[in-house]
Design a protein that fits this description.
The protein is α/β, with parallel strands linked by helices and 239 residues long. Helices cover 31% and strands 27% of the residues. Strand 4 and strand 5 form a beta hairpin. The chain is globular, with a radius of gyration of 18 Å.
Length: 239
């Protein structure tokens, strides 16, 4: 049985080095939804996503993922994580990377071909990853996250460096996945992507400014687009 919340944080505090990056965060990510994690660079988005994926130690508070403590061994096959940098091998081709990670994850043999089509990299299957553009490399990392049958996808700025058509195609893919019951936590610093989400979490300097639907965010701030809404919240000017 799937929990009502795929991710639940209560009083989450994360320190990196000597700096407190996340400050007493409490939030929830509904199962089977597309939740946008928005905010400027340095707001703590990547640290929160690393925490959800289980690769970041937390200082205090609780973080539950699919009903278990974040980082639990049994979550490894249930959570797909695509980093902004792209955790793939430059000296392998796109297809070789996907086949390697499919074996590691125990994914079906046909999964590499499936995800090549989903991330629109079929024409680049035999190219070395080290020779790809930044946007193409990000899509390879996304393809790795899609291998198997993850229940939760944690995607750190998956559309950065992509042209508008491919960005739209990926958001359509995210919606199809959510319609199949997959939960997606997608970070972005592009505020206009907020309208494509079911809910929006806005971070600034490690604090949660808003947890709203796109419509609710605009109503809360009395604005007409997500960027103006963010500026209103950041300046403390709410209608």
């Amino acid at each position: 049985m799937v929990n009502a919340l795929a991710v639940e944080a209560r009083g989450l505090t994360v320190v990196r080095g000597r700096r407190e990056v996340l400050h007493d965060l409490s939030l929830g990510v509904p199962a089977g939804s597309v939740v946008g994690l928005l905010g400027p660079s340095g707001s703590g988005k990547t640290t929160l996503m690393r925490s959800v994926a289980g690769s970041q130690r937390i200082r205090s508070g609780t973080l539950r993922v699919l009903g278990l403590t974040a980082g639990s061994r049994s979550l490894r096959a249930r959570v797909g994580y695509a980093t902004q940098a792209g955790s793939v091998y430059d000296d392998l081709t796109v297809e070789q990377n996907l086949r390697y990670f499919a074996r590691v994850l125990g994914a079906p043999a046909g999964d590499p071909s499936r995800v090549l089509a989903e991330v629109d990299l079929e024409d680049h299957a035999n190219r070395m990853v080290g020779r790809l553009s930044g946007g193409q490399r990000s899509r390879v990392s996304l393809g790795v996250a899609l291998l198997g049958t993850p229940e939760l996808l944690v995607l750190d700025e998956p559309t950065v460096g992509l042209d508008p058509v491919l960005r739209a195609d990926l958001w359509s893919l995210f919606r199809r996945l959510a319609d199949r019951g997959v939960t997606l936590l997608v970070s972005s610093h592009v505020m206009d992507e907020a309208r494509r989400c079911d809910r929006i979490l806005i971070l600034r300097e490690g604090a949660l400014l808003a947890d709203e639907t796109p419509e609710g965010l605009l109503a809360l701030t009395g604005t007409e687009d997500a960027e103006d809404a963010f500026l209103a919240l950041a300046g403390g000017k709410v209608a």
